[in-house]
Amino acid sequence: MNLIIETPRLLLREMRHEDAQALFDMDCNTNVHTYLWQKPVIDIDEVHTYIDMVRQQYIDNGIGRFVAILKETNELIGWTGIKYINDHVENGNTNFYDYGYRLNEKFWNKGYATEASIAWLDYGFNQMNIKEMNAYTHA
Description:
Layout: E1 4-6, E2 10-14, H1 20-27, H2 44-61, E3 65-70, E4 75-85, E5 96-103, H3 112-126, E6 133-134
Parallel strand pairs: 5-6
Antiparallel strand pairs: 1-2, 2-3, 3-4, 4-5
């Protein structure tokens, strides 16, 4: 994908295999998985499989999760973005757009998720013309 979304502090760009180590560092942290499935990754190959899946979503659906890069330091701080759910049922729904994000714990509480969320919701509603978007978390 050629899409790059820029916010005041972030660059949001497609996920690539060279991002695997930074994504692994985030996803092996149990705290990051507190409101997820409680299953942190244990092998970097899991991250490469995830990247392959996301890249296939770009092809199949024209959208998927993107990495978030901190402009000031060029650090990958996590992922964020819109994906189209059409391969399973979530909370009784399928064939819908989902917004989500996941950040490395050292970047929590700095407003990055909010900044990325505002940019993605603007893009989804105003550029993609999405009429309804969902988001979920585990209790």
